[in-house]
Amino acid sequence: MPRISVKPTAEAGLLLKLVYRIAKRRYGAVPEPVTVAAHHPGLLRTSVVHELMAEKASTRLPVNVRDLAVYRVATRIGCSWCVDFGTMLQKHAGLDIDRLKQIDDYATSPAFTRPERLALALADAMSGETVTVTDEQIAELEAEFGRAGVVELTYQIALENSRARMNSALGIVDQGFTSGEACRVPLP
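^ thats the sequence. predicted structure below, dont judge the formating
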């Protein structure tokens, strides 16, 4: 149960009902962070627009690299909702979710490629108590992904830090997207 109650559909205005309907169609259930953010309509609108724009603009990196880095942030911050939702998104993207069990050993695990390891290391360096990113790390990432790729990766990692920290602070926990309890959207 989140620290701030969800806003039920019965209390939603016309625009919020539309947001809930679109989210439910897209994900199989309305994501709980949306129902909590609904208490502040201006920030909910801002968040929805921002998320859609960031999703549309993020085209430079391979999906597996971006999604693994975002997932790593969720595990580092300890956001069970983000881990649950992120696993579902990777599953729907056709990615190998079994290897997520080895995420803590990414540096040595053969389940991860060199580009994925570089991205995961950046996620670690950006998601601790202090940021520990080095010039050498950015240079190595730039050689692998190009400047636009590094900017996209850094942006997505920072965005997930924001999501995960907000969800954790508000007590939003896993919703059953991975288990299928919340997600009724069939696999593509």
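The chain has two domains: 9-57, 63-169.
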